[in-house]
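Narrative summary of target 7.
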Amino acid sequence: IDETIDETIDETIDETIDETIDETIDETVVSDVDESIDESIDEVDEILEENSDAEETRDDYDEATERATITGDDDDATERTTTTSKKTQKTRRKRLQKILYALNYAATSGKSSETKYDELYCELNHNNEAEHDLEIKAGVAAGLSHLLRSALQMSCLEDDISKICYSLELVYRCSKKSRVESYEANGLELLSHFEQVLRKCFDGTLRNMPDFVVKCVVKIFAYFALLKRAKANMTQNQNIIDLLVQVIDSDISPIASIDAIWILSTMASKSVSREKISMHPGLLDSIIKCSIKGNSVMKNEASAALMNFSAVKSNHEKFANKLNCLEALRKHLLSDGDSRGHAANTLRNLTLAEPVKIQVINYKNGCILDALMKVAQNGSDMTLSFTVVQVLKNCLCNGTAQSMARHAGLLPMLSKMALSNKFPQVQSLAGILLKEFSRKINHPSPSHSFFISSVVNTLIKNKKQKNDILVSEMLMQQARTPANLSKLVHCEGLFDTIATIAASKDKRAQANIVCVMRKFASDSSTKKVIAHKTSFVCAAITILQDEDVGAKSAREEAIYLISSLASVEKNRKILANHKGLVEAMVPCTRVIEDTKLRGLAVNCLSSLMQSMVSTKKLGIL
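Modeled conformation, tokenized:
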């Protein structure tokens, strides 16, 4: 501004401040700054005095807020670490209001004051939150909002927009409490102004530093997104959402794009707003694109946003069908850092939908399964490993069980995790998943033989790491399908394992294995075979000899299965001559209270004794 205007402004302000400190400043000039400097100062003094002995509390930034921080602009910022006195605060408020008065005075004349903006920048460019709180109370945010409206209305002040937006961004580094108060006062007006500013940046009408302006405005949106009312207002404003999507899609500012992704994700914190925002045209496509092609920070932020939006249950199938969605998730699973966990959680959400389960399993011949297995085998992160197993459990259904069972390495990996894992939660969930496989895969399924060889063999051959409950429950699940028994009976090491579990101190595992044994003894295709299995008969003897009170039911079941085996004449000779069997049955029979069962046991013993006599006559004994 020419020297005459500058001198006139300075003289006018000095006189006004010094001579009319107790009078109201002309409302027509600074209506949006303060009704009067005197009233503003006195009001602040009262507030400061009331709270001088109280500890001010404020909400700390959440971790995600750091993602929305504009970097590179604070290198020269001055740290104010000393506590200023009331007198100094009062002087600073006067100085700030004097600068705002000058800027508003110039704006009403359609002029810009570079000098005053420089002074304002020097006042605001610091990282002291308390000082920024003072700036809010001094009316700086309100005054800048008034200036922004003027700059938007008058083309001659267009170059001031970047200065005003940056100044507002600096001021809003205040505490959350002050930010809430400022938003309540003029937040909606600012949102409207910022809409206009962003449109000017995108349509090319704002030529002065549009990338910097976008960065500043989006940063302020990030501050507002942490405020309950502001977030609600922004969520309901489709224009703001559309502009944020434009920011993501544009190459105008990578930092602003990252912040915009975070803002949209934060705005979608509630299920109702999440569904509404996720349906916005182009939003998911833009975020997926950034998750693939962006820099590492952008990829991480985009993967977190995808995780949040994937919680919309009604949108799972549409979400998974988005171009490159599954490919993006696969790449994130194979990456380092937080994006790997984000991708796993996204898949966990999406695979709740039946059609998505099949898509995920069949995607590029199971390459997502390969990625999930690689993450699980890493095993260094309990939460991540648990989430991966959850994804696999979600994926398992009638339409995917066969292809999952045949996928190279999956079942052996789950078997090892179920037997031994440093994280008990992961081990338990892996066992549950294996039992689900056991329930869904049965003979004559093409994958049943593979299931037996890869899972059952892994479990029963592992001598060092036993899991009696898991093995007994899986065998019991398999034994419920009669067609499976003829395959299981030829499984190497099965009956040794049955004998081991029969001697288990875990009575639940023992009860399970007795049920499995009775299934074998009752099936016509297997009862002729198992009588010749020494380990099987030894298991029955072990149960009969268990005098524990909790084993009563198991002993009775053992009587039933021996009687069932003895019903086949060719089995009687083998059973009668098995050392210890008859000797174990006799004392058990004596204490049986159930008349029917006792009669069954007596008849069984009688047939075995008769068989023993006939074998002696034949010279076998």
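The chain is about 70% helix and 0% strand.
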